[in-house]
Amino acid sequence: MKKLIVVATKVDGGKGGISSALNGYLNGFKEKNIEYQLVESHSSKGIIAAWLTSFWQILLLSIKHRNGDAVFWFHCGPWLSAIRKFSLAIIPRLFGCKTLGHIHSPTFNDYLTKSKVSQCLTKLSISPYTHLIMLTPWWKSLIRENGISKKAVVSPNPNSDEYCEIAKKYLKSNKSLVKNQKSFTVLSMARLVEGKGVELVIKAISKLPNNYKLKIAGEGPLKESLVQLAQSSSVSDRVEFLGWIDGEKKKALLSEADLFCLPSTYDSFGMVFIEAMAFDLPVIAYGWGPISDVVTPDVGICCSKPCADQVKTAIVDICTDLSVYSGNGPQRVLENYTSKAACHNIIELLK
C-alpha cells in the first residue's frame, strides 16, 4: 500500500466543510492503518510564506518518493486555492508520482460553464492530476459534459465519527417525530454570507403562524441585515440569532430542533445536511446540481427554486407529518457518509 501525502487546509481547529471532511477521512485512514502525512497549504503566516513552506516540503517528499511509493492528494477550492495547488502538484508529477485532485468548491461549476476562457483555465488547473475525486455523481457528470476525460471517482464527504455514533443511536431509537405536532423549531446553520439562503428562511417563517420558530446559528457579514430583515418582517420574537456555535452546544441545538432548513445556492455538497441527518432531522434545501444527490426524497425536500414561497411550502409539507422521515436520515448517513465508506475509493487508488 502506498503512502498518502495530504495537501490541504488546516484540519484541527479549521472551520468549514473541507476541514470537517478531512477529519473524517483521516480518522478512517487511522482505522485502516493507512500511512499518511499532512502538508498544510494554508497557514496564519500568510499566503507567500505558507506556499514556500509547502513547496519545499512537497519537493523533498517528491524526491524521497520518486520511485512511486506515495500518492499526493490535493484538496482544491476556488481560484486562489486551485492555482496554489496547481503550482504544488506539478512537482510530484515531474517525479512520476500519482496525484489526486479533490474538487470541493461550488465555484468549479461556474468556472466550467460561464466562459470559454474560464473553462480553459479550469482545465489547465487540473492538468497535473492523474485522477479527480468528485463529491457526488452530479459533479462527475459535469466534468464529462465539459469534455474532461480524466479518470474520476465519486467520494462523498464523511460525517465525523462522533456524529456517526449519534446516527447509530437515533437509528435504534428514532427522534420523536410525530404527526399533528403543535409547535415547530426550524434550524438554519451556516456562515451568514451571500448564497446561503438564510434570508429566504426568515421570509418563509414570516408567512407562517406563530407556532413556527426559527433558530439561526452562524456568524458573517450579513448578520446585521438578517437581524433587520427579521425585525422588518415582524418575526424578531420568533427568530433567534445564536452566533457561531460548536461542540456540545451544536449537538444540543441539533437534537432540540424539529427540522433543518438551508436553501443554499452556494454549496458543493453540504456537510451541514449530513450532520442534520445524523440527528434524525428532515432537511429542506435548494436542489441545484449536487445537492439533490445528498438531500434525497427519503430524508427531506429539495426546492426547485430558491424562493421563500417554496421554502414555506416545504416546511408545511414536512411538518404535516414529521414521522414520515423518522429514522431515514441516520440510516442514509450510516450507509453513505461514514469514514469507512468515504475512504474506500481513496484506498483503492493507493493500491
Write the topology of this structure.
Layout: E1 3-8, H1 17-31, E2 36-40, H2 47-64, E3 70-76, H3 79-94, E4 98-103, H4 107-113, H5 116-125, E5 131-134, H6 137-145, E6 151-154, H7 161-172, E7 184-189, H8 198-206, E8 212-217, H9 223-232, E9 239-243, H10 247-256, E10 259-262, H11 271-278, E11 283-286, H12 291-294, E12 300-303, H13 308-320, H14 328-336, H15 339-350
Parallel strand pairs: 1-2, 1-3, 3-4, 4-5, 5-6, 7-8, 7-10, 8-9, 10-11, 11-12
How would you explain this protein's 3D organization?
- The protein is of the alpha/beta class and 351 residues long.
- The chain has two domains: 153 residues, Rossmann fold (3-Layer(aba) Sandwich); 175 residues, Glycogen Phosphorylase B (Rossmann fold), CATH 3.40.50.2000.
- The strands form two sheets. The chain has a six-stranded parallel beta sheet, with helices on both faces. A six-stranded parallel beta sheet has the order 9-8-7-10-11-12, sandwiched between helices.
- Strand 7, helix 8 and strand 8 form a beta-alpha-beta unit.
- The chain is globular.
- The relative contact order is 0.13.
Q: In a few lines, what is going on in this structure?
A:
The chain is α/β, with parallel strands linked by helices and 351 residues long.
Radius of gyration: 21 Å
Strand order of the largest sheet: 2-1-3-4-5-6
Q: Which structural class do you get from the secondary structure elements?
A: alpha/beta
Please, how many domains?
2
Number of strands: 12
Low-confidence stretches: none
The 3D shape can be described as: globular
What level of helicity do the residues show? 40-55%
User: Largest beta sheet, briefly?
Assistant: 6 strands, parallel
Text of the CATH class of the largest domain: Alpha Beta
Q: Which second-level CATH architecture of the largest domain applies? A: 3-Layer(aba) Sandwich
